[in-house]
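Whiteboard transcription, Tuesday session. T.W. wrote the C-alpha cells on the left side:
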C-alpha cells in the first residue's frame, strides 16, 4: 500500500473513533470508555493462551462434561473444584458450545473482573462521595496486570471468589449484614481461599458489627450450591469434604507464593506445616483480641485497613500457598491506596510482588517476599486499633 492509502485508512478509522470519544460529556467519562475498551481488547488478545492448568484441568473437565451427558456428568468426581465453578464449565460445554472452548471457559472470570471493579468503585465512592477517584479505582482493577493475567491468560477463577469478598466488604461498609454474609458464602462456595477474610469477620463479630445468629447463612450458601450435584447422584459426604481433599493434594510449603516459606527447604514440609498452621491460628486470635480490647470504633477507614491486613497476612504466614492466593490482597491493596493516598506504594509493592509470582521466576519470588513482608508489617503498624499509641495521621 502507498503512504497515501495508509493515511486514508488511518483517517477512516480515526475519524469515527474521535467522534465517539467526543460524544462523551466529560474527559473522565472519555477515559473510562477508553479504559474499558482497552481492557476488553487486551483480554481478547490474551484468551488464546493455554496455561498448564487449562491444558491439564479446565479443558479436560470441559471435555468430560461434554462426553458424559452434560448435567448428568456432575455425579462424577472428575474435578477437585467445587460444583459452583463446575456449573460454569457445564454452561460452557453445553449452552456456549458454539464458542471456542478456551473462550467459553475463560468468559466467566473475565466478565467477573468488571463486577469486581464495580464493587471496588462502590467502596471507593463511600470515601469520595464527590470526585473521580472511584472511576480511577474501577480502571485500576480492570487494567491490573495480575487481574488480566489471572483470568484472561490463565483462565483461573480467583476473581470470582474475590468479588464475593469485595461485595462482602461493601455490604459491611453500608451495614447490611445479610447481603454481606451471603456474598462471603458465595465466595467460599467457589474457593476455600475466601477464608482469608475470616479474621475481619471475627473482628466485626466480637465488636458487635455482625450478629452471630446470621453466621449460618455462610454454610447455608455452600450447601445450596452443592444440591444440584447431589441431586444428580454425587454423594453429599464427598461434596462436603472437597476442601479437605484439596488440602492434601500438594506437598509443597510454597507453590510460587512470595511468603516466608520461600526461605524454608521443602524437606521440612511435615514439620513446618503444623507449625505454620498453629502460628496462623494463634496470630488470628491475637489480632482479634487486640482489636476487641481497643476502645476505638470500627470506622469505614479502619474497616478497609483491617480488611487489607486480613487478606495480606493470611497467605503470607500460611503454608501451602500458591502464587494466585494473593489475589484478594491485589484488589484490597488498590482500595487501600485510594483510601490512604499517602501509602499508595503499598499497592505498588503488592502488585509487583504478586506479578513476579505469576511469572514464576524462583529467585524473584524469593527476593520479593522480603518487601512484601515489610509492607505487611507497615500496614499493620499503621493501624491505630492495633497500635493505639501510634495513631496514623491519614
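and on the right, the sequence the group agreed on:
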Amino acid at each position: 500500500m502507498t503512504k497515501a492509502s495508509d493515511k486514508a485508512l488511518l483517517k477512516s478509522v480515526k475519524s469515527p473513533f474521535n467522534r465517539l470519544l467526543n460524544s462523551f460529556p466529560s474527559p473522565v467519562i472519555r477515559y473510562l470508555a477508553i479504559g474499558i475498551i482497552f481492557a476488553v481488547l487486551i483480554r481478547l488478545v490474551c484468551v488464546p493462551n493455554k496455561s498448564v492448568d487449562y491444558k491439564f484441568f479446565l479443558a479436560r473437565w470441559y471435555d468430560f462434561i461434554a462426553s458424559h451427558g452434560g448435567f448428568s456428568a456432575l455425579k462424577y468426581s472428575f474435578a477437585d473444584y467445587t460444583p459452583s465453578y463446575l456449573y460454569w464449565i457445564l454452561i460452557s460445554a453445553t449452552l456456549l458450545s458454539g464458542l471456542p472452548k478456551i473462550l467459553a471457559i475463560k468468559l466467566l472470570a473475565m466478565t467477573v473482573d468488571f463486577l469486581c471493579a464495580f464493587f471496588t468503585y462502590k467502596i471507593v465512592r463511600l470515601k469520595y462521595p464527590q470526585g473521580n477517584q472511584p472511576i480511577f479505582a474501577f480502571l485500576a482493577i480492570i487494567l491490573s496486570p495480575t487481574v488480566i493475567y489471572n483470568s484472561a491468560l490463565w483462565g483461573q477463577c480467583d476473581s470470582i471468589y474475590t468479588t464475593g469478598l469485595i461485595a462482602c466488604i461493601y455490604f459491611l461498609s453500608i451495614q447490611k449484614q445479610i447481603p454481606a454474609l451471603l456474598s462471603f458464602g458465595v465466595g467460599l462456595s467457589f474457593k476455600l481461599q475466601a477464608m482469608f477474610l475470616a479474621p475481619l469477620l471475627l473482628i466485626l463479630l466480637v465488636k458487635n458489627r455482625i450478629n452471630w445468629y446470621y453466621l449460618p447463612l455462610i454454610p447455608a450458601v455452600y450447601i445450596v450450591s452443592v444440591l444440584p450435584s447431589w441431586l444428580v447422584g454425587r454423594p453429599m459426604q464427598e461434596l462436603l469434604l472437597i476442601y479437605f481433599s484439596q488440602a492434601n493434594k500438594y506437598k509443597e510449603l510454597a507453590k510460587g507464593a512470595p511468603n516466608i516459606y520461600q526461605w524454608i527447604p521443602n524437606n521440612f514440609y511435615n514439620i513446618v506445616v503444623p507449625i505454620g498452621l498453629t502460628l496462623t491460628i494463634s496470630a488470628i486470635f491475637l489480632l482479634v483480641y487486640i482489636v476487641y480490647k481497643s476502645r476505638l470504633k470500627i470506622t469505614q477507614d479502619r474497616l478497609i485497613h483491617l480488611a487489607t491486613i486480613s487478606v495480606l497476612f493470611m497467605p503470607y504466614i500460611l503454608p501451602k500457598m500458591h502464587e494466585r492466593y494473593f489475589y484478594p490482597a491485589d484488589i484490597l491493596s488498590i482500595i487501600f491506596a485510594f483510601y490512604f493516598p499517602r501509602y499508595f506504594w503499598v499497592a505498588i509493592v503488592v502488585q509487583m510482588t504478586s506479578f513476579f509470582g505469576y511469572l514464576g521466576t524462583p529467585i524473584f519470588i524469593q527476593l520479593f517476599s522480603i518487601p512484601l513482608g515489610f509492607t505487611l508489617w507497615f500496614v499493620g503498624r499503621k493501624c491505630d486499633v492495633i497500635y493505639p499509641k501510634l495513631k496514623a495521621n491519614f
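Someone added at the bottom: Residues 250-394 form one domain.
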